[in-house]
Amino acid sequence: MTRWWPGIDSWINLSRVDPDAEVQGEICLDVQMLEDARGRCLRCHVLQARDLAPRDITGTSDPFARVFWGSQSLETSTIKKTRFPHWDEVLELREMPGAPAPLRVELWDWDMVGKNDFLGMVEFSPQVLQQNAPSGWFRLLPFPRAEEDSGGTLGALRLKVRLIEDRILPSRYYQPLTELLMESVLGPAEEDAASPLAVLEELTLGDCRQDLATKLVKLFLGQGQAGPLLDYLTRREVTRTTDPNTLFRSNSLASKAMEQFMKLVGMPYLHEVLKPVINRVFEEKKYMELDPCKMDLGRTRRISFKGAPSEEHVRDASLGLLTGYLGPIVEAIVGSVGRCPLAMRLAFKQLHQCVEEHFPQAEHEDVKYLAISGFLFLRFFAPAILTPKLFDLRDQHADPQTSRSLLLLAKAVQSIGNLGQQLGQGKELWMAPLHPFLLQSISRVRHFLDRLVDVDEEEEAGGPARALVAPSVIVREGYLLKRKEEPASLATRFAFKKRYFWLSGETLSYSKSPEWQMRSSVPVSHIRAVERVDEGAFQLPHVMQVVTQDAAGALHTTYLQCKNVNELNQWLSALRKASAPNPDKLAACHPGAFRSSRWTCCLQAERSAAGCSRTHSAVTLGDWSDPLDPDAEIQMVYRRLLLGRDQLRMKFQEDPNTDSSPEADAEKSSGATEGACPDALARPREAAARLLEVLADLDRAHEEFQQREQQKAALGPLGH
To answer: In whole angstroms, how far apart are CA 268 and each of 274, 358, 618?
Structure first.
C-alpha cells in the first residue's frame, strides 16, 4: 500500500508562540453512549496517552485527564513523572436537560505550585457521539483560538513537505527482489535493458535520482556489492556519452550514486584533509574579497590598513590570505593518497579504466583525470568547503563574512578540479589574480590522481564494511549521559551520569572528563547491536543502547543519552560503522528497558526474553543521516519499479494471442534488432519475466497484509 499526498511548497509567515498551542502526542479513548431508565449516559474509558509534551524540568510531566460533557466534568487520577501515562479509568457522565453537548477531553500537567500546564485536547461533536462513538487513538490539539498572522514582520519560512504512507513487509518478502538487483550488476552493463537497475535508470528523472541513488548505494553497500554497482552505472553512462566534455556533468544516476558513496566511505578522510584549514578560516575571520563589486573598503580600513585603502590594496591582501589557506589545502589533498579509503581508490580505479578504454585518443588524455577529479574535487571537497556544517566539519553555519571566504576557497578548489580548463572564461574574471597559483597546482593534482588509482589489492570496493573505520583513529568523541549499571533505587533522572566518550575502530572508552586519566573501555569487537531506545523506557528522549557480549557469552546493555536527535544519529552511525564486521550480530533486541520486573516495550517478565524488535544494519549512509533500513529501501525500489511495469510488459513480453514461433519473433524484431540472434532476444525477455513475477509476488503479499489490517481494524482498538 502506497498513498501519496501532494503536500505543500510555499512561504509561511512566522507568528508568536502561545505555550498552550504547543502540544504533542495522542490519547487512546473508548467512548460509549448508553441508555437506561434514568436516561442517557456517556461512558468515557480513558486508557492511555503517549508522547506528551514535557512540561517539568525533569523532562517529563504529571498528566491527568479532565472530561467535559455539557455542564459536567470528571477527572482521572494524576500519574507522576511520565510522558506515556496509563490510566485505564472509566468516567461516566449523565446527560443533563438542554441541547446535545459535545464531548471534550483535556490533558493537563499537574503542578504543586502555580497553575497547571495545558498538554492538549480532543473534542467530538454531538453528531459523532450519536452516529459513531469514538474509539481509538486521537491526536491532541491546541485550544481553538483566532488565527493571528504577523504579516511577515517576524520573518517567513519556506517549507516543502511531501507525505508518503507506505507499508514495509518483513524482510523475507523482499529477498527475491534483492537477489535480482544484485544479479543486475554481474552482466554486461552496456547491453542491459530489462534488469531492475536498467528499468530504474530509465524511469527515474530529475530530483528523484538523488533519492534513488541514495537507496541503491545503501542496499548494495549492505550486501557488499557497492563496487560492482558503481562500475555498472558508470559503464552505462560512459557508453552513452559521445562528447567527453559532458561526461558525468549531469545529475545522472551514476553521478549521484558515486557522490553518495563518497559521502559514506570518505567522511573520516574528508575531515582529516580539510578540517584543520576550515577551523582556521572560522577562527581567524579574515576579510577576503577579489570581486571589486563586493569590496567594502570601509570595513578593511578598520581591520588592517593604514590610511584609505584602494581596491588594489584589498585585492593584494586578499590574494595573500587566500593562497595562505589554499596552499595547505592542496598540500593536504595531494599528500593524502595513503589516507584515502581503499574502497574509494578501487572505485576510482574502475572509473579510470572505463573512461580510458572508451576515450583512448591522445586529444582526450585529460578525460580520465577529469572523471575522477570531477567527483573528488567538484562533488566532495568543494561542497564541504562551501558548507562545512553539512559535512559535520563545524557545529554551526558560518557568518556572512566567513561564508564569503569559504565561497572563494571553494571556487578555487573547483578550478583545480577542472584542471584549469575554464580559467579566464565566464563572468568571474576577477579571479584572475589566483590563476598563477591554480596553474601551479594542476600538475601536482594529476600526479596525485595517478597515484590514487595505482592500487593493486584484489578487494571489491564497497565490500566488507571493516574498511570504514581505521582501528586507531578516533572517529567520534564528546559528552554523553551514561546510565549507571542496575540503578536499584535511584530515580531515573539520577541514574544517568555525564561522561566523556571516545570511539575508535578498536574501543569505545569513557571517563569523567577529557583530561581524566582513568578510563573504562569496551572492545568494539564485543558489540552485538546498536539501537535507539523508546522514549517511554526512561521518560527521556534521544537514548540509544549498545549491546555487548562478554567472553562467557552473556549480553550486557549500556544506555547512552545524547543531547539532541542529530547527535543521536551521528553516534548511531559511528558505532554501527565501527562494529560492522563483527560476527554474531543480534537479529532482534528490546527497544525498551527492563524495569519493575518487565520489559517496558513488550511487557515480557523475563529479562532474558527474546528481543521484540528487529535490529538495523551496521552500515549507514552518512554521519548526518538516519541508519540504514534495508526493508524500507527495497520497498522504495519496488514502488519505483511498479511505475514501469506496464512499459516493461509492452517492450519484452509476448502477447499470448500472437504467433510466438521463432519465425514470427524474427519478423517482429527485424526492424529494431536486425542481425540479432534468438538467444540475444530471449535473454532480456527472460529477465523481464523474472522481474514481473517478483513484482507480482510482492503485490500479493501487500494485498494479504492489507486484508489482515482491515480485519484487525474491524475488531477495534480493544479487540484481540
So the answer is: 10, 33, 17
Highest mean pLDDT of the ranges 97-111, 565-579, 614-628, 706-720: 97-111
Q: Are 35 and 136 in contact (CB under 8 A)?
A: no
Length of the chain (residues): 720
Helix axes 253-265, 226-240, angle to 10 degrees: 150
At what angle are helices 175-184 and 678-715 packed, to 10 degrees?
Answer: 150
How distant is the alpha carbon of residue 33 from its chain centre? 46
Question: Reading across the β-sheet that carries 26-36, which strands appear in turn?
Answer: 86-94, 39-50, 26-36, 135-139
The β-bridge relationship of strands 543-549 and 555-561 is antiparallel
Beta strands in 286-339, from DSSP E residues, in sequence order: none
Cβ-proximal residues to 243 (8 Å cutoff; 6+ apart), any chain: none
What are φ and ψ of residue 554, in 5° steps?
A: -80, 145
Q: Which amino acid is at 553?
A: G
Helix, strand and coil content of the chain, in percent to the nearest 5, comes to: 45, 20, 35
Residue 218, φ and ψ in degrees, nearest 5: -60, -50
8 A C-beta contact, residue 467 and residue 343: yes
What is the mean predicted confidence (pLDDT) over 363-389?
91
Quick one: 293 exposed, middle or buried, by C-beta within 10 A (0-12, 13-18, 19+)? exposed
Q: Is 663 exposed, middle or buried (0-12, 13-18, 19+ CB in 10 A)?
A: exposed
| Phi, psi of 289, deg, nearest 5 | -160, 130
**Contact predicate 126/33, CB 8 Å:** no
Entry pTM: 0.62
Residue pointed to by grid coordinates 562494529: 579
Within 13 A of 589's CA, how many CA atoms are on the CB side?
Answer: 25
Name the nearest CA neighbour of 376 among 324, 452, 441, 447. 452
All three cell numbers of 133 = 462513538
Q: What is the DSSP string of 667-709?
A: HHHTTTSTT--HHHHHHHHHHHHHHHHHHHHHHHHHHHHHHHH
Percent of the chain past pLDDT 90, that is, above it, reads: 28
> What is the CB neighbour count within 10 angstroms for residue 675?
6
Radius of gyration of the chain (CA): 31
Name the packing angle between helices 267-284 and 253-265 (round to 10°). Answer: 80
C-alpha to C-alpha distance for 531 and 236, rounded to whole angstroms: 38
| Mean pLDDT in residue range 407-419 | 92
Angle (CA) 462 521 608, round 5°:
85
Cell of 116: 497547571
The grid cell for 307 is 590610511
- What's the pLDDT tens digit per position in 642-656? 888 887 788 766 543
Sign of CA dihedral 14, 18, 24, 29: negative
Q: Which residue has the cell 518483513?
A: 170
Comparing C-alpha atoms, which of 13, 6, 59, 22 is closest to residue 491?
A: 59
Give the Cα-Cα-Cα angle 629, 634, 640 (nearest 5 degrees).
135
E strand or H helix that includes residue 48: strand 39-50
Q: Give, to the nearest 10 degrees, the angle between helix 645-652 and helix 630-643.
A: 60
Q: Which residues, listed in sequence order, are joined to residue 478 by a DSSP beta bridge?
A: 501
Q: Which of 379, 137, 168 is nearest to 256 (CA)?
A: 379
